[in-house]
Amino acid sequence: MKSPLREVLLCLAVSCTAAMAQNPASPSRPAASASLVSAHAPALPPPRPVARVNGAVLTDRDLLREMYTMFPYAKQHGGSFPRAMEADIRRGALKMIEFEELAYQEAKRRQMTIAPERLAAAEKQFRQQFGDEQQYETFLQTEAGGSKQVLRSKIKRSLLIEDFLRAEVNQKSAVSVAEAKAFYLKHPERFEVPENYALQTISILPPRARNAQQAAAMQPAPEELKQMRARAEEALQQAKATQNYEEFGLLAEKISEDDYRVMMGDHRAVKSAELPPAILLVVSKMRPGEVSGLLLVEGVFTIVRLNAHDPARLQKFAEAETVLRAQMQSSKAERLRREWDARLREKAQIEEL
Q: Which of 66, 83, 280, 289 is the most buried (most CB within 10 A)?
């Protein structure tokens, strides 16, 4: 569910993006004084209608706000959306603002109200988002024509939408422990944890290889292989002398030649199905804390330290409960939202412009 002030807060992002596009002044320049805003602030083009919902007009600014909500990274790139995604983002955003307007109209039809003290608290919260009075006045002029009453109406509208969604979607999508447990028992395959091994490695690569991928594609010359083995055997002696995770890791940082050296050689937990067969064969016979012998795997001399072995198992319900209930609730909420969207659209007059 959206924050009660999300909609009006995003107005500021749209205003700033549009203003910067028209007046790319230094971001460090002082803000315009409140008395000069209307005369000197960059003028935004008039809002353009994009849809009518039972006569209520939705504009391109409403649409852009929702597009930023769906793809917030656009604001970090001058307000631009990826070309390949823009049409889909726009289509989804348009459907969402239409649904929000339908939800707002339904809330009014039910004569839902917002307590004066709650509205006042929301206004105060919104006002606190601005760094100073000048920023607030600039926003008020740009997005509300200087009218605090218009701004108050926007906040009230957002709160009514929030209340409608809370009553018809969020509260009704709650998932009990019993429901989650029933799902868990019905779908045990979804809670299978595969066997995995927690490993550290030290790797010695061919002289011409920059990484393990290049090494796997090379066929070292006999002399190169001889040099590699000599370096690897020296590394093995040092690895066997380590006593714990930290000592092996520090040695890996110092002498290992693969990319994992910057992480103390730590591969963390690796599924057994993802390990090279030669390594799996060895580690399956090791105990945690042991260091392997010298292994030649895909053109790389490798030394492995086994830190932990977790056999395949079924995740307990207590372990899965929190995430499972959240996932089930999210899925249920989305289904209810879609049902309400279809129900409200059925009798509505919607014209996309």
A: 66
